[in-house]
Amino acid sequence: MPGILLLGLGPGDPAKLTREAWEVLSSADEIWLRTAHHPAVKGLPGHLQIHSFDSFYEQGETFEEVYQAIVEHVLTLGQRPQGVLYAVPGDPFVAEATTTELALRAREQRIPLRVVHGLSFLEPVFSALGVDPYPRLFLMDAIELSQRQVPAFPPDVPVLIAQIYSRLVAAEVKMTLNTVYPDEHPVYLVHAAGSPEEHTEALHLYEIDRSTRIGTMTALYVPPLGEYTSFEAFQEIVARLRAPDGCPWDREQTHRSLRSHLLEEAYEALDAIDAEEPAKLQEELGDLLLQIVLHAQIAFEEGDFTMANVLEQVSRKIIRRHPHVFGDAEIRDVQGVLKNWEKLKQAERTESGQGERSALDGVPLSLPSLLQAQEYQERAARLGFDWPEVQGVLEKVVEEVREIQHVQNDEDFANELGDLLFSLVNLARWRKVNAEFALRAANQRFRERFAYIEAVARGQGRKLSEMTLEEMDQLWEEAKRYKPSTLFGNRQPD
Q: What dotted CATH number matches 4-120?
């Protein structure tokens, strides 16, 4: 027929060619194959003149270039008086890179197009696995997945990964999956589904690149990781809490009523970090995430924004502010990153109509004072407003100490104390120490050492108020000689 005839060769066994496909093949004189490396090719009618595009794979540097070249060639062939019969494995519109673009271009160029569907690789794969993809299954390309840092699908749904065509691809896919799935997660490799060589291997994830059966017709099936392992499942739980028949307490909450909870959960996460307790941090990050998703759910209910809006905005912001990662910018060190960051933020403010705002305007007023001071100083320093060397910072601290010694009233004392604290924060910044965390650590040391004094007093059957200052000082010095984690156990000096 004139124009382009797209034909699906089925999954591999020539017996699985459709009746329509066989009738077309029997009446055709020539056929162009995307690849001749397909089992069904051996069963094609003997009179057919067979051409393939396999040589294109050796000429192109990327699969995209190869597929684009094939599309261009088929379009040219389709403009001949006799048109072209172009055949692909499986079905023309299931996991086939060339046909969607080909159909679009043919319509644009007004080239007639006819499609003869075939059995795709999916049906025999599901048959080999004994699973029904309905109602949930994610279909993923192995090449795309191997180029990602993390999987592009929720782990609580099954996924079928097509085109595991080599052990190298299997190894790269495994590395990406390992960011979510454990090594021992059960998976299945399905080889040559729908052909006489069909074979299914039940393996653990860590074993997939060891299979000697991997070939051009290999797919990987990954069962769900388990309930409640996806962000979407968590959103559903939170939405259920806020539903009309949900939890009365959660339904009453507002952005303002949850404000203290958000702050509290953030601090508890910091406590877990300071304590270096991964299990505790895991729990606290979950509690903090609950607050974030609750706020997003409330915003959705009030018609303000959705979680998708939140994720899209922050993703675009991160990509925009990291041109050295996601673009072509060349930035070699941290200082370069910070300076470019400020330039990009100022450009964003200008584009949004905010004009020449102060570089300090974006620092939240609700931040703890030490954190706020350090953020002010860091932003000013990025713009060049900073001491040339740390000696000037030290001299400023000494100057503020002298000034506080000579104040005459409480108001002046408060002002000078603030200046001294601000100078100390600047010193911390120069020494690359977070002043807020340093003070939190000092508070924790004080708490533990004071608790030691209290514990010794109780052990002696005394009240702390009955001890002299000298006795408490002695115990304090004793507590300082031990690591905090050993104060109440098997004590070992530092």
A: 3.40.1010.10
**pLDDT of 486 strictly over 60:** no
Sign of CA dihedral 318, 320, 323, 327: positive
pLDDT band at 383 (very low <50, low <70, confident <90, very high): confident
Report pLDDT for 475: 87
User: What's the CA angle centered on 128, arms 34 and 161, to 5 degrees?
Assistant: 55
Fold match flag (123-222 vs 231-320): no
Cα 235 to Cα 245: distance, rounded to the nearest angstrom? 16
Region for 195 from its dihedrals, namely left if φ exceeds 0, alpha if ψ lies in -120 to 50, beta otherwise: beta
Comparing 170-184, 359-373, 456-470, the range with the smallest average pLDDT is 359-373
Q: Degrees (nearest 5) of the Cα angle 474, 477, 479?
A: 110
448 vs 1, higher pLDDT: 448
**Residue 9 in contact with residue 87, Cβ under 8 Å?**
yes
Express each pLDDT in 268-308 by its tens digit. 998 898 888 999 999 999 999 999 999 999 999 999 999 99
**pLDDT the model gives residue 60:** 81
C-beta atoms surrounding 25 within 10 Å: 20
Highest CATH level, class, for 231-320: mainly alpha
Give the start-to-end residue ranges of the domains of the chain: 4-120, 123-222, 231-320, 436-486
Which residues are CB-contacts of 186 (< 8 A; sequence separation ≥ 6)?
A: 202, 203, 204, 205, 223
The owner of tokens 């304590």 is 275
Model confidence at 94: pLDDT above 70: yes
Other residues' Cβ atoms within 10 Å of the Cβ of residue 437: 16
Helix or strand run (H / E) with residue 170: helix 167-177
Name the pTM for this structure.
Answer: 0.75
The 3-state DSSP class for residue 408 equals coil
Residue from 111, 94, 233 nearest 102 by CA: 111
CA angle 227, 228, 233 (to 5 degrees): 115
Domain 123-222, classified CATH 3.30.950.10, yes or no: yes
